[in-house]
Amino acid sequence: MQRKRVLPLAALLLCAPALAGTVPAAAASQAVPASGPARPLRILLTNDDGYNAPGIRLAFAWLTAAGHDVTIVAPLTNQSGAGTKGSNAPTIAVRHPEPKVWAVDGSPGDSVTFGLSEVFEGKAPDLVVSGTNYGPNVAALATHSGTVGGAVAGLEAGIPAIALSTGGVAAPDPVTTINAMGPTLDFAVKLIDRLRTRAGSGRLLPEGVGLNVNFPVIGADGKGVPAGVATTFQDPQPVLKSDFTDAGDGTWKVGVKVDLRTPARGGDVEAVGAGKIAISPINADWNTGPLDLAVARALLAGLRP
After folding, report:
1. Cα torsion at 116, 130, 134, 61 (round to 10°)?
2. Structure confidence by residue, pLDDT tens digits, 136-189
3. pTM attached to this predicted model
4. CA dihedral in degrees (273, 170, 224, 24; nearest 10)?
5. 201-211 in b/e burial notation, b at 16+ Cβ within 10 A?
6. What percent of the chain has pLDDT over 90?
7. How far is it, in rounded angstroms, from Cα 116 to Cα 86?
8. Which residues contact 293 (CB under 8 A, 6 or more apart)?
C-alpha cells in the first residue's frame, strides 16, 4: 500500500528546472563548487559509514563551499544497517579529532542526539543531513538504513532532515559509486538552496517531514547525468534475500543477494532503476496513511478484550 505523503511536496520537487536534468558530472576528485546561498544554514552532518568515510567528507566540503556552516557529528566506526538504533549504555565515548568534527562511538541516532544536545546546545541547527551513503537506501533498505536512521533522529527532535544516498539498486561498484558522489552533492546543494529559497525565514520543510534522496549511478564511470527528478514513495519490496547454511559447528553462514521484484509504480526503486533521482518524503514514525487506517479500523471493528 502506498502510504508516503508526497502531495504537499510535489510542487516543490517535481519538474523543477533548477533541479532536474542539470546535475553537473563532476568527479569526486574535482574541485567543489564555490557558489553559496544568500542565507547560510547551520547544518549537522552525520552518516552511518563513519565520520571519516569518503561520502561524509565530500559532503562536508561541498556544503561548506556552498556557504553553509557545517559540523560533522557522526559515528566513530562503520554503523551501516544500524537503522534507528539508540544506545542505552550509561556512558558513551566521544572524540573531537579536529575542528568541526565529532566522532561518537555509537549509532547515527546516538550521534545526532549527542550533537543536538551538546554540540548545538542552545541553538539547534537549521538542518540535519545524513550521508552521502555508499550505496542506495530504497525500499526495505531504507527501513534498516543507518543513514535514514540519522535523519529520523533529527526529525524526532523537530529538525528538518535529509538522507542522501549514492548508488544503483544492484550491488555498488566502489569506483563508480565514489565518482557519483560528486554529482550527488552538486544536486544536494541545489536541493537545499531550493528549500532555503522557498522557505525564506521559515522552516525548510513541513513539520515532521524529511526527505530520503537516492541518487543513481549513471554511466560506466559514474559521472553521467540522471534522467530527472522524481518525487516517490518507499517501495514495499524487501530488495535483499538472505540465505543461511548450517556450518555444523553451531554457526550458520549468511549469504545475501539482491532479489528485485517488479517495482511499485511511482516508487523509489522504479525511479532509480530508470536513472532518476528519487526523493521520498519520510517522517519519524511508522504511522500509515488515512486509507490504511480505515482498512485497519474495518478489520478490527467490534474487537473486545
Report:
1. -90
2. 999 999 999 999 999 999 999 999 999 999 998 876 688 999 999 999 999 999
3. 0.86
4. 90
5. eeebbeeebbb
6. 70
7. 14
8. 287
Q: Which of 249, 183, 191 is nearest to 216 (CA)?
A: 183
pLDDT digits (tens, 9 = 90+) for 66-118: 999 999 999 999 998 888 888 888 999 999 999 999 999 999 999 999 999 99
Residue 89, amino acid: A
pLDDT in tens, 43-58: 999 999 999 999 999 9
- On whether the CB atoms of residues 109 and 151 are closer than 8 A, the answer is no
SS (H, E, C) the chain: CCCCCCHHHHHHHCCCCCCCCCCCCCCCCCCCCCCCCCCCCEEEEECCCCCCCHHHHHHHHHHHHCCCEEEEEEECCCCCCCCCCCCCCCCCCEEEEECCEEEECCCHHHHHHHHHHHHCCCCCCCEEEEEEEEECCCHHHHHCCHHHHHHHHHHHCCCCEEEEEECCCCCCCHHHHHHHHHHHHHHHHHHHHHHHHHHCCCCCCCCCCEEEEEECCCCCCCCCCCCEEEECECCCCCCEEEEEEECCCCCEEEEEEECCCCCCCCEHHHHHHCCEEEEEEECCCCCCCHHHHHHHHHHHCCCCC
Give residues with Cβ within 8 angstroms of 296, minimum separation 6.
288
Model confidence at 285, pLDDT cuts 50, 70, 90, reads confident
Q: How far apart are CA 44 and CA 64, in angstroms?
A: 12
